[in-house]
Amino acid sequence: MKKQILAPSILNADFLHLSKEIDIAEKGGARFLHLDVIDGVFAPSISFGANIIYSIRTYTNLFLDVHLMIENPSQYIADFVHAGADSITIHAEGAIHLHRLIYQIKGHGIKAGVALNPATPISLIEPILSDIDMVLLMTVNPGFGGQSFIKEVLSKMTMLSHLKSSKKYSFAIEVDGGITPREALWCSQQGANIFVVGSYIYYKETDSEKLQAMKNIKKSLGIGDSK
């Protein structure tokens, strides 16, 4: 996960035509598909569950980046693994036994990530940074698409990147929330390499506008195929 990766989020996609929305992600050169699972308890709003992820898995070979914003995630890890998740990211704020949960995920042979809300300090996860594959920094408060980027998270990104470099950790740094080409560039400059983009792509009216939005993000990150 060292290269810059665009990960379209389907949270704001048209679920009546979800296969078409996935086709757009593939055509636009995405490598990951970001899947936000929200239970309405850990975060406001309710999205979808393992059955939708299973349907997506049968349709695409994209890397399924599953982000759990739910209470009691340990009860559902196996369900999401069996549905086809390639990675599962859980929130540090919602995990009492974080280390155990990370190894529960890894025990299924997939990648494990930890997410932090904007106000949660990096220090909360320092003891497990050597054990995880990815840190997801939320750049909005979780629950809804279409929110504005919280610029203060950039300082956390800088701190996390410094820790990664100084300790020679190998985890990827993912960012999620309010990402447009400008914010993608800012985050890239602070060490992020996986960029979750939802409303900037899927709020567009036409397929060509959605593809152009993906092209704009890729251009800002210097990802090939952006002409």
TrEMBL record:
Tell me the residue numbers annotated for binding substrate: S9, H67, G143, F144, G145, G146, D176, G177, G178, G198, S199
Q: What are the EC numbers?
A: 5.1.3.1
The identity of this protein, by name, is: Ribulose-phosphate 3-epimerase
Taxonomically, which superkingdom?
Answer: Bacteria
Q: In which pathway does it act?
A: Carbohydrate degradation
The active site lies at D36, D176
Binding-site residues for a divalent metal cation, renumbered to this chain? H34, D36, H67, D176
Xref: InterPro entries:
Aldolase_TIM, Ribul_P_3_epim, Ribul_P_3_epim-like, RibuloseP-bd_barrel
User: Per the similarity annotation, which family is this?
Assistant: Belongs to the ribulose-phosphate 3-epimerase family.
Name of the gene this protein is made from: rpe_1
Traced from the root, the source organism's taxonomic lineage reads:
Bacteria, Bacillati, Bacillota, Bacilli, Bacillales
Name the job this protein performs. Answer: Catalyzes the reversible epimerization of D-ribulose 5-phosphate to D-xylulose 5-phosphate.
Give, as one word, the top-level EC class.
Answer: isomerase
Which co-factors does it depend on? Answer: Mn(2+); Zn(2+); a divalent metal cation; Co(2+)
> What terms describe the molecular function in GO for this protein?
D-ribulose-phosphate 3-epimerase activity; metal ion binding
A Gene Ontology biological process in which this protein takes part is: pentose-phosphate shunt
What do the Gene Ontology cellular component annotations say?
Answer: cytoplasm
- List the PROSITE patterns: RIBUL_P_3_EPIMER_2 (PS01086)
Which reaction(s) are listed as its catalytic activity?
A: D-ribulose 5-phosphate = D-xylulose 5-phosphate
Q: Keywords of this protein's UniProt record, alphabetized?
A: Carbohydrate metabolism, Cobalt, Isomerase, Manganese, Metal-binding, Zinc
Details of cofactor binding: Binds 1 divalent metal cation per subunit.
